[in-house]
Design brief:
This protein has 327 residues and is of the alpha+beta class. It has two domains: 153 residues, 2-Layer Sandwich (Beta-Lactamase), CATH 3.30.450; 152 residues, Reverse transcriptase/Diguanylate cyclase domain (Alpha-Beta Plaits, 2-Layer Sandwich), CATH 3.30.70. The protein contains ten helices and twelve strands. The strands form three sheets. It has a five-stranded antiparallel β-sheet, with helices on both faces. Helix 7 crosses helix 8. The protein is elongated. It starts with 7 loop residues before the first helix and ends with a strand. This is diguanylate cyclase.
Length: 327
């Protein structure tokens, strides 16, 4: 299992809180070329061996003869496997041999590299209960796990939003709209309420792109999207980019005349943006709309979309820059 990564600031805070309270030796070291170097040691560790001060190399500690041969094997294994490790060691303190159970944990950064190893030893000779030390460690690690879990949840929410949002306009995308349409049709039938769908299409958008370029076209789409969002403010209202220069608006519990009024307000406001489109009769960017409303329980998503599309086609045939209700 991959270890939770810590940065140096977190490590400092962690060990500063623990080292004064620890009843057993507690330290942090870092790997260097073929060796390990002490970075921090608590009072209990220094009492056991004053040489365990920052900057001391483990090879220097071993050279004192207080530590058994092979003690570095555990550190090298921890470094290689990037996993916690326990082993026993028998240091000699003031001529007396002690039995310690050593626990090592690698600290791994975002690049999957071991930057430090922290360790603690429990004196089995004197039957010291290791649970007191581990409880403090577990409480800190539990807090870090909760923090990482919250970060993951936030990342998942951002990812979910990306899958249902049109990147350019920040409106809902077609996938989200299709799902919402099915749900709202079912609710409209269940509550015996109307459901309005408005199909919008920017007039002569290909001409606009050919004349002013795709960058200007993207800006135009964004501004039109802002107008649409402004007129879909209720909690259940949905506005989406349906494809290219096409947009759809889902308005629960509105009848034909109410939905037509929304379409007309959108159409008027888009024309009022005065985005130049000199190759057209209006000389500015305009939008056409087709309105359809569920009238009976036999309606489904395809039927509603088809009616709105037909109404939009009639709007286009009538000279564009207008809104019509499906007949």
């Amino acid at each position: 299992m991959k270890q939770v990564p810590f940065n140096p600031e977190e490590l400092n805070l962690f060990f500063k809180q623990l080292w004064k309270k620890s009843l057993n030796p507690f330290w942090i070291c870092k790997p260097i070329a073929g060796d390990f170097e002490m970075v921090l040691a608590n009072p209990a560790a220094l009492k056991l061996d004053p040489l365990q001060k920052p900057g001391t190399k483990f090879s220097e500690l071993i050279a004192t003869g207080k530590y058994p041969d092979g003690i570095l094997d555990g550190y090298h294994k921890c470094l290689a496997d990037k996993l916690p490790l326990e082993f026993e060691q028998t240091p000699v303190v003031n001529g007396k041999e002690y039995l310690f159970r050593t626990f090592l944990v690698p600290i791994v950064n975002d690049n999957d590299e071991v930057t430090h190893i922290w360790g603690t030893s429990h004196n089995l000779t004197d039957f010291i209960d290791p649970q007191r030390e581990l409880l403090m460690i577990n409480q800190y690690l539990d807090a870090k796990v909760q923090e990482r879990t919250e970060q993951l949840n936030q990342a998942m929410k951002r990812l979910e939003k990306l899958t249902i949002t049109d990147e350019l306009t920040q409106l809902a995308n077609r996938r989200y709209f299709d799902d919402a349409l099915q749900k709202e049709i079912a609710r409209a039938k269940r509550n015996n309420q109307p459901l309005a769908l408005i199909y919008f299409d920017i007039d002569y958008f290909k001409t606009f792109n050919d004349t002013y370029g795709h960058t200007a076209g993207d800006k135009c789409l964004k501004r039109v999207a802002q107008v649409l969002s402004h007129h879909a403010q209720r909690a259940a209202d949905v506005v989406a980019r349906y494809g290219g220069e096409e947009f759809v608006m889902l308005l629960p519990n509105l009848n034909c005349q109410q939905a037509l009024q929304v379409a007309e307000r959108v159409r008027t406001e888009v024309a009022g943006l005065r985005i130049p489109n000199q190759e057209t009769e209006a000389k500015v960017v305009t939008i056409s709309a087709g309105v359809a409303v569920i009238k009976e329980s036999s309606f489904n998503a395809d039927t509603l979309l088809k009616l709105a599309d037909n109404a939009l086609y009639q709007s286009k045939s009538n000279g564009r820059n207008c809104s019509l209700i499906a007949s």
